[in-house]
Write a structure and sequence with these properties.
The protein is α+β, with helices and mostly antiparallel strands and 309 residues long. The protein has one domain: Sulfite Oxidase, Chain A, domain 2, CATH 3.90.420.10. Strands 3, 4, 7, 8, 9, 11 and 12 form a seven-stranded mixed β-sheet that branches. It has a five-stranded mixed β-sheet with strand order 2-1-10-5-6. It is globular, with a radius of gyration of 19 Å. 41% of the residues are buried.
């Protein structure tokens, strides 16, 4: 008997998009837009013609329907409910300047579209696992964070990257709350230069809509979703581990690493399983969200750290 040992990040045959549908997905997306499913997309920029980007065949699967994923989303700058897509329409993602500073050769500011235009874009289908114990499958478009690191030319003393979102309470109603705004996240340089780390510029074959964090967000699929900061306005290289937004807001519940682990519960709920949004399914959670083959080595020797909080 031939026993197949499937890799953690691979998706079973029954969940894989049929080839004829995958190859035809661009026309399907256009049809969806005509039906109104693309109504949440922002006004196009000069880069809009670059979408859809070439698909990376290494990362495939059946995406969560766009109208489901775009309407069940956390974006705390725009409130605490899953209806953030409504309030997020107030965001003006263009023009959008990004500051890149800290321990790099020459700190600079750049328009988001100019930065994106310097990078090589591709589409990758990644699983998204929220700390709230739900999950989706999303076709992201973007460039590897490693490309940005190489572009910035950090010094050898840079050990971490700190990401910061915009701060504009007049536009973002959620930023009028008690939370420690602006939203801040961070990665080690080793995590940032891992091939999985993606700077996202688009989704579902088109330019990134507001609710997903336009014009530029992070996606680190082996970590809980709150690590993947949206609407980035500043990227800083530092030798000091940054205190992240949720560490500051809930130090007893959230930590720096936030790697997906079914064996370590959140203080208020289990992480052993997850609800698959848009279905009636609940499935077991995988260590590192199924991407351990790519990232487990990053954490050897760090057993004393709270890696999963």
């Amino acid at each position: 008997m031939n026993i197949i040992h499937r890799k953690g990040w691979e998706i079973s045959e029954r969940d894989v998009t049929p080839e004829h549908l995958f190859l035809n997905r661009r026309s399907v997306l256009k049809g969806s837009a005509a039906l109104g499913l693309g109504a949440i997309a922002p006004a196009g920029s000069a880069l809009s013609a670059t979408y859809p980007a070439p698909a990376n065949a290494k990362f495939t699967g059946t995406p969560t329907p766009e109208d489901v994923a775009s309407r069940y989303n956390n974006f705390y700058e725009f409130g605490l409910t899953k209806r953030a897509f409504v309030a997020a329409e107030a965001l003006k993602p263009r023009p959008w300047r990004i500051k890149v500073d800290g321990l790099i050769d020459k700190p600079f500011e750049i328009e988001a579209d100019d930065l994106i235009g310097k990078m090589t874009l591709e589409e990758r289908i990644y699983r998204l696992r929220c700390v709230e114990a739900w999950s989706m499958v999303i076709p992201w478009t973007g460039f590897t964070l490693k490309q940005l690191v190489e572009f910035a030319k950090p010094s050898a003393s840079a050990k971490y990257i700190r990401f910061e979102t915009f701060f504009d309470p007049k536009v973002a109603s959620g930023q009028r709350s008690f939370f420690p705004w602006p939203y801040v996240e961070g990665l080690t340089i080793e995590e940032a230069t891992n091939d999985l780390s993606l700077m996202v510029t688009g989704v579902y074959g088109k330019q990134l809509p507001n609710v997903f964090g336009a014009p530029l967000r992070l996606m680190v699929p082996w970590k809980y979703g709150f690590k993947s900061i949206k609407s980035i306005s500043r990227i800083s290289f530092t030798d000091t581990r940054p205190q992240t937004f949720w560490e500051a807001a809930g130090p007893g519940e959230y930590g720096f690493w936030a790697n997906v682990n079914p064996q370590v519960p959140h203080p208020r709920w289990s992480q052993a399983s997850e609800e698959v949004v848009g279905t009636a399914d609940r499935k077991p959670t995988q260590i590192f969200n199924g991407y351990g083959e790519f990232v487990a080595d990053l954490y050897k020797g760090l057993e004393g750290e709270k890696l999963y909080m």
